[in-house]
Amino acid sequence: MSTTAGRPLPPEAPPLVLASASAARRQLLRDAGVQFRVVPPAIDEAALRRNLESRAMPLADMALALACEKALAVSRDEPGCLILGADQMLECDGRRLDKAADLGEARRHLEVLQGRTHRLVTATVLVVNGERQWRHTQTSMLTMRSLDDDSLAAYIAAAGERILASVGCYQVEGRGIRLFERIEGDWHAIIGLPLLAVLNELDARGALGPWD
Each residue of 59-109: pLDDT tens digit? Predict the structure, then answer.
């Protein structure tokens, strides 16, 4: 679902800023030839999540709210720039899982997910001068295989601490794809950004940039 709101951008599109420290999101944009800068938001994301949880918000609304807060935090110091914010939320059998703090917690998360189908919501927003201009949510359904202890330990050892950057503690663009039995949804959104939707919106705003 996508919506556009707020004032139109000026004829000369502002610079694009990615409000995220995610290496996966950076790589998606780079591979598409998008010109952008990276400015990670200086926010207490854990506190924001706790606040939103206390409101009992739907998963997609919570993901959108977090993506927007990240973009707004960067927008305050980047006047005139087009700020791209994103967030992902994962829910399995009514339980929400965040990024793991360490590999021990990552294993516990993977134990919860194995043999089950979980829902992954990817939310993306564009903000200019503190105003949300566009929003998009994408829901994917992923079914993980049932794994024995040795296989789970081998995956964690092979993938290492990189999985701590991923909600759900898997990276489908790498060895994590072997964890799954079935995936339904947008591949790029699962990695971190609904790339086609983002590119279409940037193009509509004249902010996609040249091919070279």
Answer: 999 999 999 999 999 999 999 999 999 999 999 999 999 899 999 999 999
Q: Single out the residue of 28, 195, 207 nearest to residue 127, CA to CA.
A: 207
Q: Give the position of tokens 């409000």.
A: 19
- Contact between 167 and 190 under an 8 Å Cβ cutoff? The reply is no
Q: Write down the pTM of the prediction.
A: 0.88
Three-state secondary structure string covering 183-203:
EECCHHHHHCCCHHHHHHHHH
Name the DSSP letter for residue 163: G
Q: Beta strand pairing status for 16-18 and 37-38?
A: parallel
Active site residues: 87
Q: How far is CA 114 from the centre of its chain?
A: 21
